[in-house]
Amino acid sequence: MAMVAVGGSIGTGLLLGSAAAISLAGPAVIISFLLAALISWTASLALGELASAHPAAGAFGLYGELYLNEWAGFLSRAGYWAAISFSVGAEMVATATYMAFWFPNVPGVLWIVILSLCLLLVNLRSVHDYARFEFWFAMVKVVTIAVFVLLGAALMLSHKVPAQYTTQGGFFPLGVLAPLLAMTFAIYTFGGVEFVAVTSGESRSPNDVAKATKITFLLLTLLYLGAVAVLVGIVPWNKTGVGESPFVTVFRSVHIPGAGHIMNFVVLTAALSGANAALYISSRMLFSMARSGWAPPELGHLNRKGSPNLALWVSSYGIVAAFALETWFPGDAFVFILRGAFFGLILSWIVSLAAHISFRRRLTPEQLNALPMRSPLGAWGSVMGLLLVGASVLRSWWDSRVNLISGLGYLLVFTIAFFLLRKKHRQSTMSR
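Below the sequence we write its predicted structure tokens.
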């Protein structure tokens, strides 16, 4: 479960989105990631405690229904599905960016079409083929990021490259509040800690859920903070951009023979892995919603190999968005998609934190002592996390029109859908 969560989390949010974050905050982006890690910690503890108490399919949607209301449960499921599906577009735009490193004259939309078709074919096959494909992709990027952190730290400690933390305007070149501007990208990068809750139904025991939660948070925090510290320590903050991965920029800047090509291959596989995982999870999420009456029943059918064909095709709409944005807004496509997916993703954290507060209030002392995993922060940790997440969302709405429109759009569209589907969901629940 931990490897699924870690592998699904490490994608273009770090490997390309970190460039956008650095351009907004400079070296102080380290503070952005520290704050994002704090928020992620509170969400991880809440999700881990809830998942260990309720290791069942449904994850945060189930927690919302049990401890808040049907609307919260549906909103977290639908918003998460929409965001994960849309984020496939960010991964595909990133693949086009990485392929341009080798084939600068080939249109990016061509790579989006070719590689998207390959991923769809993988997901239309059996789950065993998907698992084999994703395992190797996840292994490559986890090992590579760890090696990158170690090599980067060695380069700086050996003084082979000058540390860039205080050059080009100092640690806060864009002001002391600049780290807040980069919070959208930093929090998005930590998206994936909720995978433990999504996969908790497959766990052998509640204790496994507790262990997986801790491992996931610690691995992601160490990898992300280490990678970002190395990035801003080696490359001047004003020389990063989303035209290529800053990880590739690092290796090109220190003139290691062939390292830029190797790193570009790695970030390409990471983007394909992220898109592959997002297609898998979003299609299964939509399939589950259809089976429970929260989506049209046609989306709840499987093909001969056990893949939800129609749910997969519907969940691939992010690829269409990537094609359109790469055609009309090639320079901004990646950032637009990432910002558009942010609120739907963070809804799962908001609902889980709120549900955890309610969950803790209902527990007796005996039930609390019997929990396989206990959050050391208790309900107050989730209150703090909820306030921080809320502040981050409001700040992102203030800073970006894309964040504002997409966030309000999620709330409006899925609230309408909730009232249209509520009766069918209750009929489905009663029939079971």
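The longest helix spans residues 259-291.
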